[in-house]
Amino acid sequence: MLPTSETPARETLADLSEGEVLARIFPRLPGAAAQLLGPGDDAAVLSAPDGRYVVTTDMMIQGPDFRLAWSSPHDLGWKAAATNLSDVAAMGARPTALVVAIAAPPSTPIGVIEGIADGLRDCCEALAPGCGVVGGDLSASDALTLAVTAFGDLEGRGPVLRSGARPGDVVALAGRLGEAAQGLELLFRLAVDADGVPDAELAAALRAQHPEEVAAQLAPVPPIDRGPAAALAGATAMLDVSDGLAIDAGRLARASGVGIDFDRAALGENIERALGGGEDHGLLATFPAGTDLPDGFRALGTVTDAAGTILLDGRPHGQGGWDPYRGWDGSVR
Amino acid sequence: MLPTSETPARETLADLSEGEVLARIFPRLPGAAAQLLGPGDDAAVLSAPDGRYVVTTDMMIQGPDFRLAWSSPHDLGWKAAATNLSDVAAMGARPTALVVAIAAPPSTPIGVIEGIADGLRDCCEALAPGCGVVGGDLSASDALTLAVTAFGDLEGRGPVLRSGARPGDVVALAGRLGEAAQGLELLFRLAVDADGVPDAELAAALRAQHPEEVAAQLAPVPPIDRGPAAALAGATAMLDVSDGLAIDAGRLARASGVGIDFDRAALGENIERALGGGEDHGLLATFPAGTDLPDGFRALGTVTDAAGTILLDGRPHGQGGWDPYRGWDGSVR
Predict the structure, then answer these.
(1) Residues of B with CB below 8 A from A66's CB?
(2) Residues that bind Mg(2+) 3, according to the entry (chains A, B) (predicted)?
């Protein structure tokens, strides 16, 4: 019987040489259309047809970033790919390739690594066809760790920066708000045992009950192809919403020297969740007024000239309650 | 007083926001000549003048890969850069840029991260001028972890693969053999306390006594610029010697469908150390017979037509002793 992510092969990494592990992984990984030279030499070679390439990197670590009781190996590979693809898409680029470094305890069943590879492949095939894994690295560690670097092709267009929004632009979003945070909240509330330890059976039951929220957290589906679509439609600024709409809108506003006024009605019923939820991985973009928004984008508000000010229906949100600056990272201070 | 790698700033990562940490790191990092867009957006943009780029990735983890009692933060940044630059150079490419993901415990003093940044910078400036850090990621973890992805420019040349060696070619090396392994052996023998735990004071004393061997292990100086030089001189095959000469020569031989006959005299007095030592990070290359070897390369032997056979002065080494296949990874079986 062939090992699949559902029936992880029992042999551990300690039972196999690095070469044997790679021989099990490579056939599962998607090739990249941009690949001129793939795995097996000291480095890979990729094509950059317009003489430029987009690069982003991100690391996921067991414990702080995921729990094996909640995430399947397939989920981990999928999420590691999806979050990096989203950063590439947020530049208006088409993702072309990934390199993936994995560190794992020697006791890790090879089926876990195979499941991660399957998740990487399925995510690329679903969200960025033609994008593949062109290289990687395998190391030993105590905590399962995935470091992904993703590449993209601007296809001759300029990158869509955070800094290009202009007063009067429409603020629009592709993707959902607050769902991933809701999934995480549900997991921490309902998928832990009496001692607060993540529990696989409870997580499976929760996932059956709240499939959308839990999947948004464990295996998100960011609107990757909307990045290039936004660029083609003339987006003036764009970013990946990873730390919550309020924080990320703040980043875009500060980088552009503008403000943003959100329409409360566009943010849904749970305004705190929409503004505060993390790991949405939607694309927040601004477009010149009157732009026919590309499919998948919906208007959330408008760009104002009140630099750095985030408003709701023209007013600060709450009665001294919500502070758009609270939780902002220092880079925008 | 400005914090330096010698006097690590005491504030911990837990005391600072991610943005504040980045604000401390970025000014220390070298810019890259190839950088079209640097850190601060969702992704960086790099130039690829000849429409291609070289990519390699590698992860270093506290415990399996380094010990903080032996390696200074500066050493860690240096080595993480050096080993990745070496893989780029082994393709015959000129290194252009790095992205660096760092995961560290929240209790890590910011000075440690600053020291790593200084090491990355100093290594790039010393070994690959013009190469810089264009992006990264910062996460929390229990074990300090560095994941580096490095990029290179082939400058219009074809990549030098492992598979191009031809019978009659000269086998040559830039760099040293066995010194890094000797350094590691010294550290494990003389820089541990009575319980076998790595000890910083003993390591410092050892480094004063054996500076070359210990530095070869903790902060190697691979001959990065010899990679493009070898390509220009017509190298038919090349790789980075990372797992020991015997293993890596075997990889090159198998990939090329050739054998290698080493001149025993060229390998120095300690033949086992020369053949077996890991982490040399020299460049092993083959050149057409009669090639004027580029500066820094010395001949070690010749390529034969006995596919997969590694010989010493025309004979298998030792009396049934050294098996060139022992320790090879599965990828070449």
Answers:
(1) none
(2) 42, 87, 240
Does B88 reach chain A within 8 Å, measured CB to CB? Answer: yes
Closest residue to B90, CB basis, from A22, A42, A53: A42
A191 and A255 assigned to the same domain? no
- In A134-163, the residues whose Cβ lies within 8 Å of chain B are 134-137, 139-143, 145, 147, 149-152, 154, 159, 161-162
β partners of residue A152: A54, A95
Cα(A217)–Cα(A212) distance, integer angstroms: 9
Write out the residue range of the structural domain in which residue B194 sits.
182-218
Amino acid (one-letter) located at B66: F
Contact list in B for residue A251 (CB cut-off 8 A) is none
The SS3 call for residue A285 is: strand
CATH number of the domain where residue A31 is located: 3.30.1330.10
- Residues 47-76 of chain B with CB under 8 A from chain A are 47-49, 51-61, 63-65
Among A94-108, A158-172, A265-279, B210-224, the range scoring the smallest mean pLDDT is: A265-279
Q: What residues contact residue A205 under an 8 Å CB cut-off, 6+ apart?
A: A191
Q: Are residues B116 and B34 in the same domain?
A: yes
Residue B196 lies in a domain: yes
The answer to whether position A125 is within a domain reads: yes
Q: Are residue B144 and residue B252 in the same domain, yes or no? A: no
Least Cα separation, residue B286 to chain A (angstroms): 15
Task: Let me know whether A112 and A85 are in one domain.
Answer: yes
**Cross-strand bridge partners of residue A145:** A61, A103
Number of compact structural domains in chain B: 3
Q: Helix A200-209 to helix A179-190 angle, to the nearest 10 degrees? A: 140
Q: In angstroms, what separates the C-alpha of A73 from chain B's closest C-alpha?
A: 19
- From first to last of its 333 residues, chain B has per-residue pLDDT tens of 444 445 556 899 999 988 889 889 989 998 999 999 999 999 999 999 999 999 999 999 999 999 999 999 999 999 999 999 999 999 999 999 999 999 999 999 999 999 999 999 999 999 999 999 999 999 999 999 999 999 999 999 999 999 999 999 999 999 999 999 999 999 999 999 999 999 999 999 999 999 999 999 999 999 999 999 999 999 999 999 999 999 999 999 999 999 999 999 999 989 999 999 899 999 999 999 999 999 999 999 999 999 989 999 999 875 333 443 343 332 322
Indicate the residue among A218, A245, A275 that finishes a domain: A218
For residue B70, say whether it is annotated as part of any ligand binding site: no
Which of A296, A299, A289, A157 is CA-nearest to residue A232?
A: A157
CATH at residue A293: 3.90.650.10
Is residue A104 a contact partner of residue A144, using CB atoms and an 8 Å limit? yes
Of A324, A300, A277, nearest in space to A178 by CA:
A277
Nearest to B101 by CA among B83, B89, B113: B113
